[in-house]
């Protein structure tokens, strides 16, 4: 057991250094040393500055766009493979490009499948990720996938709020399963928003299925991108008589004018994890760390122990 502990090493991609440092501290080992050389044209070359021969290596990095984040993960996986690491686990707190998980119209790619194959080809022997946009993405991999749920982080916080007349809401039909799972643990009602899009990131119409009059509502989603859906849903629920509206979203992508939309909306609080670093602070955003969750699972993987206790959903 002591020998195994010596060969576990944790490294960070540049976009996830802060989270990786917290994970390493929670795990109880120092973060490994990586040096990245940059060329003037934008090309870069990461290198491990310590031996990883025969080691179990965890490489932590979210793959949110731009594409450099994914490319850095791929290069580090390839470098670990060529450095004779024994096991190479890609730890992706946020699995980017996951919204393209099927052909929703002719002549389009299935990017999530392509990314899965790229990670395996680069050298990943195991994947650890959290709140995939679609559960079935696990099936795109031929390697083991540990799919974690941020509910283990969010539920204790939601319980601590002691909200009366609590109702869980899904911002769209696709998230109804997630909303029902939260409602089961919180013993609350559920409402669902039905939306139609004019195009990507633009809602043409939204309707509410269920009653929110006099309720404290918590919207649950896997990610918040432009914040259009969440803010639209929050404003609609306040119009329909809700006392307050909060939102729980695992991954704070927050692109475009998302911050401005949040500030102008009726949303009281947006609760997120640190899977993606915030671009800037906001008084409406509450960040809960997922570092302990990942550290516990990584340690269990290293010692070949069960992680079933980490799955609340």
Automatic annotation (TrEMBL):
Domain Ribose-phosphate pyrophosphokinase N-terminal residue range list: 9-123
A Gene Ontology biological process term: ribonucleoside monophosphate biosynthetic process
Alphabetical UniProt keywords: ATP-binding, Cytoplasm, Kinase, Magnesium, Metal-binding, Nucleotide biosynthesis, Nucleotide-binding, Transferase
SUPFAM superfamilies given in the database record: PRTase-like
UniProt-listed InterPro entries: PRib_PP_synth_CS (IPR000842), Pribosyltran_N (IPR029099), PRTase-like (IPR029057), PRTase_dom (IPR000836), Rib-P_diPkinase (IPR005946)
GO molecular function terms attached to this record: ATP binding; kinase activity; magnesium ion binding; ribose phosphate diphosphokinase activity
GO cellular component annotations of the record: cytoplasm; ribose phosphate diphosphokinase complex
SMART domains (alphabetical): Pribosyltran_N
Record-linked CDD domains: PRTases_typeI (cd06223)
The protein's Enzyme Commission number: 2.7.6.1
Reactions performed catalytically: D-ribose 5-phosphate + ATP = 5-phospho-alpha-D-ribose 1-diphosphate + AMP + H(+)
Stored PANTHER family: RIBOSE-PHOSPHATE DIPHOSPHOKINASE FAMILY MEMBER, RIBOSE-PHOSPHATE PYROPHOSPHOKINASE 1, CHLOROPLASTIC
Protein name: ribose-phosphate diphosphokinase
């Amino acid at each position: 057991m002591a020998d195994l502990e010596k060969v576990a090493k944790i490294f960070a991609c540049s976009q996830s250094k802060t989270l990786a440092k917290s994970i390493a501290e929670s795990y109880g080992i120092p973060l490994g040393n990586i040096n990245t050389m940059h060329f003037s044209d934008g090309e870069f070359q990461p290198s491990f500055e310590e031996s990883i021969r025969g080691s179990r290596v965890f490489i932590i990095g979210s793959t949110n766009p731009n594409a450099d984040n994914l490319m850095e993960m791929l290069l580090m996986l390839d470098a670990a493979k060529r450095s004779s690491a024994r096991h190479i686990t890609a730890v992706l707190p946020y699995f980017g490009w996951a919204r393209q998980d099927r052909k929703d119209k002719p002549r389009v790619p299935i990017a999530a499948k392509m990314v899965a194959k790229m990670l395996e080809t680069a050298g990943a022997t195991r994947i650890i990720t959290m709140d995939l946009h679609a559960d079935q993405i696990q099936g795109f991999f031929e390697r083991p996938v540990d799919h974690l749920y941020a509910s283990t982080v969010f539920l204790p916080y939601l319980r601590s709020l002691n909200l009366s007349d609590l109702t869980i809401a899904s911002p769209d039909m696709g998230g109804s399963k997630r909303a029902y799972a939260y409602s089961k643990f919180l013993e609350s009602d559920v409402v669902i928003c039905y939306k139609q899009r004019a195009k990507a990131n633009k809602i043409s119409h939204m309707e509410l299925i269920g009653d929110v009059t006099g309720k404290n509502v918590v919207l649950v989603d896997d990610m918040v991108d432009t914040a259009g859906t969440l803010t639209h849903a929050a404003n609609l629920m306040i119009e329909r008589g809700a006392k307050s509206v909060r939102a729980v979203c695992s991954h704070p992508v927050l692109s475009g004018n998302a911050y401005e939309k949040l500030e102008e909306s009726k949303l009281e609080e947006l609760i997120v994890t640190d899977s993606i670093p915030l671009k800037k602070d906001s008084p409406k955003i509450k960040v809960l760390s997922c570092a302990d969750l990942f550290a516990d699972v990584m340690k269990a993987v290293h010692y070949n122990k069960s992680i079933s206790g980490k799955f609340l959903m």
